[in-house]
Design goal:
The protein is of the alpha+beta class and about 350 residues long. The protein has helices at about 10-25, 70-90, 105-125, 175-180, 190-195, 195-200, 205-210, 225-235, 260-270, 285-295, 325-335, and strands spanning about 35, 45, 50-60, 90-100, 130-135, 140-150, 165-170, 220, 240-245, 275-280, 300-305, 315. A hairpin with a 7-residue loop joins strand 1 and strand 2. Bound molecules: adenosine-5'-diphosphate and magnesium ion. Adenosine-5'-diphosphate binds near residues 18 and 40.
Length: about 350
């Protein structure tokens, strides 16, 4: 409690880091933000004919990140996970607020955190418009606001039997990185370098979300594992699903692992921040064109089916389309359960 930086009060921190950073990124193109940091509230002007999408995500030290986490990457990730939620609804980012608890006002940490935070804010034209700053155990809570034409938001409840199920990018690399960092799995240093950004610096699929507005019938971003998150779509849409386990897209690095690890991490790993969505079969060509335009793989991994005995469930299929029994699936997918945090 005696270093120079400790003398920085709450207002000095807001002014020196958050207000200055926000002003540096603000250009006049922000017609939606009438008033930013400095008053009791920010003012956000809704676009006529559009709805405001609102999402919050909290990152807590020790729970969501290691205490020695790189602050610049933490700044990026704190906003990225919120942008990913906006993307999953098809919303265009408008701005965000930041509520932050800091054990002490560490200037070096704050500089790096803001560098990462404002870099990604700029990349996605999403300005910081307000927040709260207090002393306390390191906690970063962001609320992001997005805009979407009325009734166009892609909800979890819109999937229908017969539709295709798609996933963007690849899944499982964030989980593999975590396993490597925890020394549960040994992977070559060069391989780790290629995938670790999937855990520390996820890319929110905002452009994909915007393109899916009139195409997807349901969508969500995968943060807790593909199959577990898909279950939310199934329950809210009152449907079931068939997933070809082999078709879940995996990176070349993950493909070097034993098959059970590949399946476990890609299907249930978590922290992927890819978009899982459903769409009518008639949209296949359009989706392939979007994939090409965005230079982002989008893979058809299964079908929506009717509920089975009034239950919304996922059935797993092998490469030949044969049903994988529950026992086999448990063996394939649960083998690394003891790694779960
Ligand atoms: P109040 O006491 O009226 O809630 P504060 O003193 O908490 O206001 O904050 C002053 C101004 O600074 C407000 O406009 C608030 O939105 C902004 N602010 C506070 N903390 C942050 C932060 N971490 N990031 C961005 N803006 C912040
Ligand atoms: Mg306040």
């Amino acid at each position: 409690m005696h270093s120079e930086s400790d003398s920085l009060g709450e207002f000095a921190v807001i002014q020196r880091f958050f207000k200055t950073g926000a002003q540096a990124m603000h250009s006049n193109k922000d017609q939606n933000i009438t008033l930013g940091i400095g008053d009791d509230c920010a003012l956000l002007k809704p676009v006529v004919g559009e709805e405001i999408a609102i999402t919050s995500d909290m990152l807590v030290e020790g729970r969501h990140f290691f205490s020695n986490a790189n602050p610049a990457l933490l700044g990026r990730k704190a906003l990225a996970v919120n942008l990913s939620d906006l993307a999953a609804m098809g919303a265009r980012p408008l701005g965000f607020t930041l509520a932050i608890a800091l054990p002490r006002p560490d200037v070096i940490w704050l500089e790096a955190f803001c560098e990462g935070l404002f870099a990604i804010a700029n990349e996605f034209s999403c300005p910081l418009i307000g927040g709260d700053t207090t002393a306390g155990p390191l906690t970063i809570s962001i609320t992001a606001f997005g805009s979407i034409p009325a009734e166009k938001a892609i909800r979890r409840s819109g999937a229908k039997p017969g539709e295709d199920i798609w996933i963007s990018g690849t899944t499982g690399d964030a989980r593999l990185t975590l396993a490597a960092l925890r020394h549960e799995i040994l992977i070559p240093e060069d391989d780790l370098k290629q995938i670790e950004s999937r855990m520390h610096d996820p890319i929110p699929r905002v452009n994909l979300g915007l393109r899916l507005r009139d195409i997807a019938s349901a969508a969500l971003d995968v943060s807790d594992g593909l199959l577990g998150d898909l279950q939310h779509i199934l329950e809210q849409s009152q449907v079931s699903a068939e997933i070809f386990l082999e078709l879940i897209p995996k990176s070349l690095i993950l493909r070097k692992q034993a098959e059970d690890i590949q399946h476990q991490f890609a299907a249930c790993g978590g922290d992927d921040y890819e978009i899982c969505f459903t769409a009518p079969v008639a949209q296949r060509q359009v989706i392939k064109a979007i994939s090409k335009d965005l230079n982002l793989p989008i893979t058809h991994i299964g079908q929506i089916t009717k509920m089975s005995n009034a239950q919304a469930i996922v059935r797993l299929l092998d490469a030949d389309g044969k049903l994988i029994s529950d026992t086999e699936a448990a063996a394939l997918l649960k083998s690394f359960d003891h790694f779960a945090s």
